[in-house]
Structure formats: C-alpha cells, structure tokens
Amino acid sequence: MSVTDSVSVLAEGTFEEQVQELVNYLVRTQSDEERAASIRPVQEALTTAEGQKSLSEDEQRRQKIFSMIILAIKGLGRGQEKEIEGFFNLIYAHLFSLFSPSSPEAKQLTDTLLKVISSAPSDQTSIKYRILSNLFDSLPRNSSLRLSVYNTILSIAVADNSINALHLSRSNVSSEDKSAFLQHIVDAYAKSIIASALRIPSIFEFDTLFKLDAVVANKDHELFALLQVFLNDGLSEFKAWETSHPGALGQHVPMRQTTIQISIVHSWNEKFDFLPLASLGFKNIGTNLSYTKIAEAIQVDVSEVEKWVIDGKLSQNTQTLHIIRPTARSFEREQWQALEQCLLAWKSGLSSVLDVVASAKRQGGHVSQTITAVAAKFIHICV
User: Fold this and answer.
1) What per-residue string of b and e applies to 278-294 under the rule 16 or more CB within 10 Å gives b?
2) Which residues form the eIF3 subunit M C-terminal helix domain (predicted)?
C-alpha cells in the first residue's frame, strides 16, 4: 500500500449522497434555471435502470459520474474557506479511491484540477495554497503527480511574489535545513530536465545541459551517466548502461502503465540509434559512407539502413550515403579540429582556383570554364 500524508476527510452517506453534495456546492451561485440544467445530467447518471448493476457494484459508472463533476468545476466556489477546503478534500478522496494515482486518468483529472485552482482569483490565494497542500498530501509519497502539484504551488508563489508562502521563512527550520530543502528541489528539477531531454524525440544536442551547475551537481546519479552516454558514446555503451541499471528507463518515465512504459523505452532506444549515426556522419563530411559502416554503427542489418537515412543522398547501386551536412552531437576539441581541417581544405582549394584563374588570364583562356573544372575537384571536401 502506498504511503500518503494525512488529510482529514469527514464524509458521511452513500456515494450518491456525496455526489449530490458536491453538485449542490457547484451550482449554489447559479440561477434556478441554470441549476436545474446542471443537476439533471448527474441525476440521470445516478439513476439505475432496470437490469443495470447497482452503482455500488459498477465502478466504471462511478468513475464516469465523478469525471463529470471534475469537468464541471470552473473555480474554487464562493463560501467560507472551510467549505472550499472540505469540497476539494472530498474531491481528492473520491479521485484516488476511484483511480490509481499512477493511472493516466488520475493524471488527466489532476491536471484539470490544477489548472482550475491555479487560475482562481488572487483574493483566494491563501485557500489555493491550502487545498493544493492537501492535494499534495493526498498523493502517495512516491507519486510523480506530487511534482506537478508542487510546480503549481511554486508557480503561484512566484506569480504573486510570495515565495514565503512556501512557509520556509516562517517555520522553525534551521538555515541548514532550509538550504538542504531548496537543494533537494533544485536536484529534482535537474533530474527532470535530464530525463526530459533524453526522452523528447526532437532533442539531440546535450552540450548545454553540461553548462548547468544543477545538472553537473548530479554527476553521481544514474541519469547523468546516461546523459554522458547520449553525448559521447555508442550503442554498446548504451546497452552496457541498460544492463548495469535494470529498470532505470522505466523508472524515469512519467506514467507506469506497462504498455506506455514499453512504448517510451522503445522511443529512447530509437532516439539513441540516431546519435552514433550523427557522429559517423560528422567524421565523414563530403564522403560516400558505405551501408556496411552505417549498419555497424547503429547495429542493424544492411537491408534496414535506408529506413534510417531515407532523407539522405543515397545510392542504391553503390550502397553508399553521401554526407553533405551533418550535425555534431557535441562541439568540443575533436569537432573544432574537424572544422579546422575543412576550412584549411577550402582555403587550399580556393588558392588553387585563384592560381588557375591567374594562369588562364595570362594565357587568354576561358576563365569561367577553368574555374568550374577546378572547383569540381574540391567542392565536396567540406560543405
């Protein structure tokens, strides 16, 4: 059983009665006509038709009804702060009894609540902090949703210029403990940034992450080791990391459903396959790279190479890929040296063109044809 922090919920009655209580709270400021229109769909959903399972035995119907209520919440409501707090505590109680906190449904409904709560007027800031804190405490301590809740609390504090609302400055906490707490937050964000960068399919450059002190400070974490593999190494190192850190990829994805987890882990592997290809391309600018070398780099059969580089300049007859313009995974000493070689090659080639042009002028030849012939010899050295 997941461990949560204590949140008191004093609720009496059946599910139907508690749902009616929630609905009555939501419609209390509406006109009679609006109130009737809002209540009707819920009452119809609560009604058990002949031959239908009772509501207490039909969890799917209870989930559907509860989701209707969540979607109907447009604000914190008007009333005493205790009433508002009690309403949301009852919401949390039903949310995490009907849906597992690790389920996509719970994440979706929680995100909906967070948007509603965070957008409430500034004159309700104090109760916003209270009900968000209760939501945080209602979640299992190992739940990834806690980070979303805390992000919302932090965003509200920053927007209202009230960072002290996090209660660090007013509580009886030593300076050392405050620093440790804030460092814990920084570390959590750094790990989240690393995981996101590795997971997002469109991100292939990781140099900038190593310029962040918070990221470098986590050099002993397994994700930092994986980041270094993504930056510099090949598939063999990646697989070695997987072997030495079993289950780590699944641990750092946002949801823990098996099918979703497998899908995301596959995307990590597929993304990594492109990185050795990028390194190989950068080392072979302006040359024809054989399918065999490409297959060795990304550890696939030669027949599958074209699936990976379908947008490149391929030659099926010679089984080669012509490298025109690669992107380096990182830009360090080795890449600067490669760039220097390219520039020197261009300099040498241009000098040759100038010499030939001067010679052609002296001899009264066709300068444009001569330039074209000479340029063709070196134009593909570096692009």
Assistant:
1) bbbbbebbbeebbbeeb
2) 329-357
Task: Kindly give, in sequence order, each residue whose CB lies less than 8 Å from that of residue 327, ignoring residues fewer than 6 positions away.
Answer: 204, 205, 278, 282
By the 8 A CB rule, do 383 and 286 touch?
yes
**CA 231 to CA 207: how far, in whole Å?**
7
Dihedral angle of Cα 59, 60, 62, 63, to the nearest 10 degrees: 120
Are 134 and 85 contacting, i.e. CB atoms less than 8 angstroms apart?
A: yes
DSSP 206: -
Between CA 123 and CA 81 the distance in angstroms is 12
Q: Cβ–Cβ contacts within 10 Å for residue 207, how many?
A: 12
Averages of pLDDT over each 10 residues, the chain, 383 residues: 49 83 89 89 87 87 93 89 92 93 93 93 88 91 87 80 55 65 76 80 77 86 83 75 77 44 45 66 72 77 70 69 64 71 77 73 60 52 47
